[in-house]
Hints:
The protein is an all-alpha fold and 110 residues long. 57% of the residues lie in helices and 0% in strands. Helix 1 (17-31) packs parallel to helix 3 and helix 2 crosses helix 3 (61-77).
Amino acid sequence: MSDCVEHSAPEPVFAEPWHAQVFALTVHLNETGRFAWPDWAERFSATLKRHGLSRELDGGDDYFHAWLETLEAVLDEDGGALKGEVSPIKEAWEEAYLTTPHGAPVSLDV
């Protein structure tokens, strides 16, 4: 038996799959050089403050809606995803998931 105990940071737990997806996408964009993490953190903090989310957040929808809003703004500013391109896709996605029967896979035909 070894006296060595491995320690690792806990994996983040996400309440919804889309929370994990937008988080992973943001990390990927940072790692590929689309933006610096300190700049991201500053912008995200400003979004949270603007929404009045200064309390201790639990990583729920309010937190990730602010996260997504920040990411969309960053991508709009750098030309990666212009608002005029994103809005119709968001609306189509919302319509698709609202009209898909519970338990069925959601598909987006755009």
